[in-house]
Amino acid sequence: MHADSPRQANAILKKAVPLMRKMDVAPTPYNYGIWYEYVRQTSPKLNQLVDATIGRLGSLPSFVSKELFHQFLVSEEARFNSEHKDRLEALVQDVSLSTQDMKTNLQSLESVVSKSRKVLSRADRDKHLDRVVSFLDQGTQKALQDAEQFTKDISRVNREVAQLKAELEEIRNNVDLDPLTQLFNQKGLERQLYSLIPSSEDDLSLLILDIDHLKRININHSRRAGTALICYVARILQNRKLENATVARLSGGTFAIVLQDATLDFAIEYAEILRTHLNKQRLKSRNGAGVIDNIQVSFGVATIIGQETPANLIARATGYLDNAKRAGRNRIASR
What we know:
Layout: H1 6-22, H2 29-40, H3 44-57, H4 62-73, H5 76-80, H6 82-120, H7 129-173, H8 186-196, E1 205-211, H9 214-221, H10 223-239, E2 245-251, E3 254-259, H11 264-279, E4 283-284, E5 290-292, E6 297-303, H12 310-326, E7 332-333
Parallel strand pairs: 6-7
Antiparallel strand pairs: 1-3, 1-6, 2-3, 4-5
């Protein structure tokens, strides 16, 4: 959704609302969002999917609108960053209340028009013309005021969504952070290692871990479930990290943990604690049904040797991770 002016938003809604009524589309926030963007024509692919769905089904079901809303109007970062997700849910709730009020007000206007028609159908309608005109005037004025308030509400939500997107873009442009999890990315990890290695001896350890069978999870449970799993693991690693530890997401379901003042034996023990804890977790869908029975991860653990470069240390730990995968997954390898 875009930060349109009240006049622009009103012009778009004047086209979107009749389309929704013609298609008998429920006035939900998701539907309003999709049809607003459809009329605005900012996403050709969205419009193509809407047209194809209508051509195939004769309408646009609400569950399809919800999927399209998440796919085209809400970025993945907004869906899974907790702070932004809370704000987004609040915006959806605001629009929901506004659309419900608008629906009620339209029904009131329809009632006014219906009663006026009944009066005008009587034989003595001339006696009531002034009253009908006054009645219609009051009803239409109220409807215009309600429509104006609704337009303001939509414009405000548009502005807030635009601000939310700007914040997410700023996060995405931070070269050291992973936009999905807010952990360090690989470049941020390398910067940390460059700053730590000169003062370390043999007590700097690196854990590289990877979610096992993530590709299969994406296929069996949808990519959204896989993304939710990545974010869930990221939160666990961040919440259970040790003092002076650095957590990073390298790519996909692969993470790294830098442990200062940690021998190889200590790092292996810590990796086992994390692996056991993750194995006990259950990721559930919103309706409470189990999605992923347990979370399995493989670890590669390496401790720095001399003045080893960050690239070499990462390569060694990644090689040990590969060994853990080949040995059967859901295990730890340190050589």
